[in-house]
UniProtKB/TrEMBL annotation:
It comes from Asanoa ishikariensis. Pfam families: DUF4438 (PF14505), DUF4438_C (PF20999). Residues 29-158, 159-281 form the DUF4438 domain. This is DUF4438 domain-containing protein. InterPro entries: DUF4438_C, DUF4438_N, TM_1086_sf, TM_1086_SG_dom. It comes from the Bacteria.
Amino acid sequence: MAVRSNADRLVTQILTGEVWPALADRHGYRVDADGTPFLLPGMGGVTLGVHPGDPATGYAADHLEPGLSVRHRDGDANMALQFLSCVGNTVTVRTGPAAGAQGKVIGQHAYVLVDLAEEELAQVSTGDQVTVAARGQGLRLLDHPDVVAKNLDPGLLDRLPVRTRADGRLEIGVAARVPAIAVGAGAGMVSEFANTDLMGAYAGQGDDLSLGLESLRIGDLVVLEDSDHRFGRGFRPGYLTIGVISTGHCRLFGHGPGPSTILSGPADAFHVVDDPDACLGGLL
């Protein structure tokens, strides 16, 4: 049965931001889990060639942010952009050669991350203005009161591999199951802000660091076991969180590909199904 929601009661708010430049300081280098210094592209700017459905790991990159990295230069307005932008929201480029191009929010990190078609992405520059048609915070699943939805455009909900089962549970397909020990940076923060970095996907950095997550793709739906993201982010046995992988490869210890939270609640409220096709690459 289709999942019923209060989508008809949600409002759309137009938010503004700009494509933020990549940043660094004069020291440049960081250090990976084995103490090896590195200097690699990562957060900010416009990142070409990585879209939902593409691998999240294996790049010569650190804290890889696909597509556009968007924020607002006013601190309070930027937090509103973070809190209210939802995965699946439509983003429109308003200035520069790519003006008029539209893409989708694929998650949050230090920035709101936006996927565009590659040919349009290549025309965007830092400083270009964008608008986000923010809709989704306040979404409720009417037949699943124990499941908290957040950061999720209701239009995307209708395309996700979800349904209400005859036994009342919410069935959802995921491309990967993530053990609680993989949760790194992001724990303890509010789950409407940034994402949760996953350890154990340090491709090429030794088998002793692997948790079998090297095959993650940008846009994958994943389940975080024993994780409660309803009112923050923390370890709670018997709870599950569903997220969308929005960031990619990272060499910093305790960091890694990161899911943005979309659903969270008691494990017995869900029926999780392994589905290798559960990825935004085929949905957006």
